[in-house]
Design brief:
Blueprint lengths: L12 E3 L5 E3 L12 H10 L3 H13 L4 E2 H8 L3 H13 L3 E6 L2 E6 L1 H12 L19
Antiparallel strand pairs: 1-2, 3-5, 4-5
Length: 140
């Protein structure tokens, strides 16, 4: 299987008593290694310009993060739009939210970010069987 660790979880969906669909998919892996499915989910989440801008702003803000209101002012997006995008970032484990009274503070999960970068660069320049080292692809 190579250097990638593949873990597939079954998705179990059912209806709760109010008729809502409940998805009992396990949370993303928070171990030292990141499987390729989890990595792809994180990259997919960051693939939207608003979510990427929010995540980059939180990384720039540092470990103290930012209140949601400050994020909204910096990004200049409606509150409902920001809430939607933050829910995706939180679900992917890229952002953490803590409540301090009436203030909801968001912080980037730096350990998760480090695992993403480590997974992306784990085999950098290791070579590929059948490919000549140092050969650039032909231009068309």
């Amino acid at each position: 299987m190579g250097a990638w660790e593949i873990t597939v979880f079954p998705r179990i969906k059912y209806f709760d008593s109010s008729g809502n669909i409940v998805d009992s998919t396990p949370p993303p892996s928070y171990g030292p290694r990141m499987d390729i499915i989890d990595l792809a989910a994180c990259l997919e989440t960051l693939g939207h310009p608003t979510r990427l801008a929010a995540f980059r702003l939180l990384v720039r803000a540092g470990r103290g993060g930012l209140p949601v209101g400050a994020l909204q002012r910096h990004l200049e997006v409606p509150a409902s739009t920001l809430s939607h995008h933050l829910s995706h970032l939180v679900a992917a484990g890229l952002v953490r939210q803590t409540r301090d009274g009436r203030v909801l503070r968001c912080t980037a999960d730096y350990a998760r970010m480090d695992r993403i970068l480590a997974a992306l660069t784990a085999q950098c320049c290791a070579g590929v069987e059948g490919a000549e080292a140092g050969t650039a692809p032909a231009e068309t």
